[in-house]
Amino acid sequence: MERNDFCWCGSGKKYKKCHMPIEERIKLHEEKGEIVPTRDLLKTPEQIEKIKKSAALNTAVLDEVASKICAGMSTADIDRIVHDFTTKNGGIPAPLGYQGFPKSVCTSLNNEVCHGIPDEGIILQEGDIINVDVSTILDGYYSDASRMFKIGKVSERAERLIRVTEECVELGLAAAKPWGHLGDIADAINSHAKANGYSVVEDIGGHGIGLEFHEEPFVSYVTPKGSEMLLVPGMMFTIEPMINEGSPDFFVDEDNGWTVYTEDDGLSAQIEYMVLITNDGVEILTK
pTM for the whole thing? Predict the structure, then answer.
């Protein structure tokens, strides 16, 4: 673009006052051999505002689950809560029908790493821990987040795993800075998990989001500091490490083709935030 053209992002500002300085800085990093985002990975102001509305609904869905989840209910009950609340408020549950996924939410219990399928026969018991992963489409824009729930009084080992997972996410957030790298987030998370005797699942990670359910970049949580894609204002992705009590190894249920279990039957926990890289740091969009 020419310096005095209106910027491609639709901000109404001249290119020289908007994305030109950002793109010039990106080019300097690219010339040093770093992985940099393409322009289509930088959300425009209009897109950000619309995605934030989807994110607000996604958070409200999780709040609704939090107000009702309890021992004695089935994971299918959670699915109904998510589906009904989402659709009543004008949204669409993103998982429903996605690549054949049969339900509106993922409910991953105890030794399930992710992608647990709600079922009438799975009843929440005192002492269970469960990850509820909610993803929402509103007016064509996507959002995503998950929370860990403790059912009644849980074991000390479950409490500690969830606490350390929360700490990992917070440390990852603190490392998410403009003109840093995705590997900075990964190193902060992986280092803390290992220091506490846990492991991070390597082959499943976060992802870009907003215009589609899953976009570039893939967000690993085991790569070195200073590696992976450059973090640039306008990038939007999830921070969602899966922390295992024991081995990071896992297997996928052969019958349903979705549910991921820990190989050693240990507990697993995951917390997912959706974030936007800004000029000053990182903005949490969902949690």
Answer: 0.95
